[in-house]
Design goal:
About 5% of the residues lie in helices and about 35% in strands. The chain is mostly beta strands. It has a 24-stranded parallel β-sheet that branches. The protein has a two-stranded antiparallel ribbon with strand order 25-26. The two termini are about 25 Å apart.
């Protein structure tokens, strides 16, 4: 209870500074009630308005599936992060998130099934999905849907059994960025790729991982996109269906049956400054536990090996590292968007009338 009250005080302070509503979703047994506190996340979303932040308290129980409708444009939903640096295993877990509004930020959640963007009859833009562990991200394919400015960063997207791309942005989406993510894919021998993207999507500083099999493709459909600074680790930079007008710059591919970059030389596929000399996947990272396979362990730290792969340091298109440790916001599964109290230290016995000295250690992005 002491920790919860301190969190509430921090949130109250943030609310005072930014003059916005901070709503709490907490479905834990015995959770306190009060203004802006909801046991049901959907109820908190429905009560929110533009500029509001919803903080989803970690819980062993899922918050179910939720929809952010057009009336909630401009809200943010914050969980505790992918692998938060705290005591206890609980995180903020949902089943599905349906985004039907613009200017929405989803951060720090664990989403067991999917995050779905758009529907057949709406136009939306400026959606951020970050610091989230999610099975799959997809968007509407309806000809009456228009979506733009979609940012997916610092996410672990690890689909294994659904026969589609793990990140599927339809040709109704433009100006998207997929960056600093760890990306898996379908593990059947059918060969579905990991990402579908169109219309100027930038795919940079990610790891595409797999077991090296010929069916492990990084892309399903990819057209008119830029692919740069990525590590294809046991998942070949090829496609299952179509690849047209794609530029591959400053990528490395290891551990696959076809590590060629650019992967094809037809249909406007070009590339420069890709790394072709690094052939042993065991030499890419410092962490010896990282091996080819269809499961990525969140305890793995994808730090590049300065001894065995020095050419990948400061060699991206922006002068930073190849892979998720590069770019402006490097991969960090412990990162959290709101202050996370890691420890509270105070005297066990305090005499009446004396001051109570308290040391609080917290972390936030």
């Amino acid at each position: 209870m002491k920790h919860f009250l301190l969190i509430m005080l921090l949130i109250a302070a943030v609310q005072t500074v930014f003059s916005q509503n901070i709503l709490i979703a907490d479905n834990n047994a015995g959770a306190p009630s009060g203004a802006h506190v909801y046991s049901d996340l959907q109820a908190a979303i429905d009560a929110s308005t533009s500029g509001d932040i919803i903080h989803v308290i970690p819980s062993p129980t899922t918050y179910g599936s939720v929809t952010v409708s057009a009336a909630q444009a401009g809200i943010s939903i914050f969980g505790i992060g992918i692998k938060p640096d705290k005591d206890g295993p609980a995180v903020s877990v949902l089943n599905d998130v349906f985004i039907r509004a613009s200017d929405v930020r989803i951060s720090g959640l664990t989403v067991a099934t999917s995050i779905d963007i758009g529907t057949s009859s709406n136009t939306l833009s400026n959606v951020i999905i970050e610091n989230t562990n999610v099975y799959r991200i997809s968007s509407s394919t309806s000809s009456s849907f228009v979506g733009s400015n979609i940012l997916i960063r610092n996410c672990y997207v690890g689909l294994t059994t659904y026969s589609s791309a793990v990140i599927s942005l339809s040709n109704r989406i433009s100006n998207a960025v997929i960056t600093n993510c760890i990306i898996g894919g379908y593990t059947s021998t059918t060969g579905y790729g990991s990402v579908t993207a169109y219309n100027g999507t930038i795919i940079k500083n990610n790891i595409f991982f797999g077991n090296g099999d010929a069916s492990r493709n990084a892309f399903y459909n990819i057209e008119n996109c830029t692919v740069s600074n990525n590590i294809f680790f046991g998942r070949q930079p090829r496609h299952y269906s179509t690849m047209k007008n794609v530029t591959f710059n400053n990528n490395v591919s290891v551990g696959s049956v076809n590590n060629s970059l650019p992967p094809i030389t037809t249909d406007g596929v070009t590339g420069n400054s890709n790394f072709t000399d690094l052939v042993d996947p065991a030499l890419v990272f410092d962490d010896p536990a990282i091996v080819l396979g269809d499961s990525w362990d969140l305890n793995w730290e994808p730090v590049l090996s300065a001894t065995n792969a020095p050419e990948l340091f400061d060699s991206g298109t922006d002068g930073t590292n190849i892979g998720p440790t590069g770019s402006t916001i490097p991969w960090d599964p412990t990162g959290v968007p709101l202050p996370l109290i890691q420890s509270v230290i105070s005297s066990e016995v305090i005499k009446q009338g004396d001051n109570m000295d308290v040391t609080i250690k917290a972390r936030g992005n």
